[in-house]
Design goal:
single chain; alpha/beta; Spore Coat Polysaccharide Biosynthesis Protein SpsA, Chain A; 2 domains
Length: 380
Amino acid sequence: MNVGVHLQKYIDKKYLCAGNPHKHLDINKKYKFFIVIPCYNEFDYLFSTLESIDKQNPNLVNNTLVIIVINNSADSDSTVKNSNNKTYEKLIKLQFSFEFVAIDCFSNHNAFKNKLAGVGLARKVGLDFSLKFIENLNSIFCSLDADTIINENYLDIIDNRFKHNTVNAAVVNFSHQKSSNSIIEQGIRKYEKILKEIANNIQKTGSPYGYVSMGSTIVCNAKTYIAVGGMNTKKATEDFYFLQSIAKYTKVHKIKKVLVHPSSRGENRVYLGTGFRMDEYLKSKSFKNLNFSKESYLEIKKIIDIIDLHWSDSNEALLQKLMNNLNKKSVEFIKKKNISKVLKKFKMNAKNKNQFILLFNQWFDALTIMKFLKFQKQVN
C-alpha cells in the first residue's frame, strides 16, 4: 500500500479539517502513536486522563502526539461553553512529557454546526488531524475518552501487540472506575459483564464481530483508518459503526489485559452510552434489550456453519439447508432480509470460499446480528 497515494486519496475525499489548534506543530516531526480525546464539558475529568498518559513508558510517550478536541455545538448552553473555555485555558498552559495539541471546536467561530455536533465528529477531527504527522501507515491511533484512565503499561502492551505488523486493529480490555454510588457501582459491574458476555457469545458463533464496541478501547493503525474511510460523524454509537467497518476490512483483535478504565458516572450524555445505561439502571434496576437467550446465539452459529459448509451448493440447496435447520423465528428474520436474493448475489460475485464467506460476513454484520438477537427476543 503506497502511503502517499492512499493518504492523498483519503485527504482529497474524506479528510475533515475543523477547529483551530492552539499551537503550530512542526509538520516534519512524525509520531508513532496518536491518542485522540474528544472533550465535551470535561473540566473535572480530563486532567486525570492526561496524567495517566504522562506515566507511560518514556521511550514510547516521547513518540506520541495527544490530540484533545474540545468541542460543543453552536447552540450548547453557556455552562458547557464556559466549562470548555475553562478547560482550554488551563490545558494550554500545561506541560507534559508528551507532545499535545488542543483543537478549539468550541468557541464562537469554531463550534460545530448543531446538525453535526457530537462525539463522532470530534473523534474524526482528531483522527484526521493525526494523518498529517504519521511516520508511516503502521502509526497507531488510540481512541480514548476525556474521563478515562489508562494503565501505566497501556502503550507498552499496545506496541508489543502491533509490533510485528500482523495486527491492524484491536480493542483493549476495560474495567470501569469504581463509583461512590453503590447502586451505580452494582449497575456498572452488571453492565460490564453483560457487554463482555454478548461479545464472547457472538465470537463463539464464528462471527468476526465478537468484541465490545466502546470508543475508549479502540486501537488501529493508520492503514486501517484510511482503508475504512475514517471515523464516521454519528452523534452516538460512532464506536459501534467504526468497529463494524474495521471488522469488514480486517480482524479486530482483543487485548485481554485490562488497560482502560472508563468513568462510571451516571450522566445520560449519549444515547446507548454508558451514562445512558446507568441512568436506565438507576430507574429500573435492569438494562433493556441486552438479555439474549443461548438459543439465539446457537441460531447464529447454525447460520454461519451452514454457510461455511454448504457455500458451494446450489442457491436452492443452500437456502433449503437454512430453512430446514433454523427455528421459525430465524427463518422469518432471514426471509425478511431477502436471503435468497442475497445468496444469489454472493454466488455471482464470489470466485472462491474465502470471498463468499467475506461477502456473507459483510452482510451479516454487527448491526444485523444485534437486530437478529433482538428479533429473537421480541418474538419469544
